[in-house]
Amino acid sequence: MNAIGVRDLNASYHGVEVLKDITFTVGSGRIVGIIGPNGAGKSSLIKSMLGLLRIDKGSIQYFDKPIQEIRKTIAYVPQRNEIDWDFPITVLDTVLIGTYPKVKLFKRPKKKEKQLAYQCLGKVGMAEFSQRQIGELSGGQQQRVFLARALAQQPEMLFLDEPFIGIDVASEKKIMTLLHEFRKDGKTIVVIHHDLSKAAVYFDDLLLLNKKLIKYGKAHDVLQPVTLREAYYDQFSFLEDIGVTLT
């Protein structure tokens, strides 16, 4: 069974079309990278799929169900610039938020949830920072904490929007290692990514987008010079070199 099915998806912002006739499926236990130039609609696609952006038409299903029936099994890590890092909250409390969907209404997280939060912090190498304010951390550390929060939801699917922007190399490697482990457990992961030189190593499949779907499939098949040129036009002069390297 496919984990995700998107069919004839169209979306717009204030009357301006940002996505047109997007159709694709994602198999269970795959890690998919969404790539494309700036303004291609990558974040809009994820937000549409998560019900955060109203769509004009089309359908989105998860294991043949609408998101309303399966929302608690999906975790989302937004772009860092969408988060208020000045909000006075500790690292531990940030991760505990991930347990809220499974805590009974009007109940606070208890010992079991705190143990899970510490376990998730340990996985991302941030347990020793549990009592720090989130705003005191580096960009890479903050991103690890938000990944821990997502893991605390114990999701079946994980969406990440540009998780590697502004973080250190060590954090990027740690996050990718965790995502691959997550995939080995049969989970499905969708990541918006901008670094084409790493895309073939990081992802099973790639979705190349520029408001419409340019190409979707195995990374090697998508990262071809002619395909990249269609998506990026003349925006980057080095694309041809990247294509030569990857072919």
Q: Nutshell version of this structure?
A:
This protein has helices at 42-49, 91-96, 111-123, 139-152, 169-184, 196-202, 219-222, 225-232, 239-246, and strands spanning 2-13, 16-27, 31-35, 55-62, 74-77, 157-161, 188-192, 205-210, 212-218. With 247 residues, it is an alpha/beta fold.
Walk me through this protein's architecture.
The chain is of the alpha/beta class and 247 residues long. The chain has a domain at 1-70 and 157-169 and 187-247: 3-Layer(aba) Sandwich (Rossmann fold), CATH 3.40.50. Helix content is 34%, strand content 26%. The protein is built from nine helices and nine strands. The protein has helices spanning 42-49, 91-96, 111-123, 139-152, 169-184, 196-202, 219-222, 225-232, 239-246, and strands spanning 2-13, 16-27, 31-35, 55-62, 74-77, 157-161, 188-192, 205-210, 212-218. The strands form two sheets. It has a six-stranded mixed sheet with strand order 5-6-7-3-8-9, sandwiched between helices. Strands 2-1-4 form a three-stranded antiparallel sheet, covered by helices on one side. Strand 8 and strand 9 form a beta hairpin. Helix 3 packs across helix 4 (139-152), helix 4 runs parallel beside helix 5 (169-184) and helix 8 runs antiparallel to helix 9. The protein starts with a strand and ends with a helix.
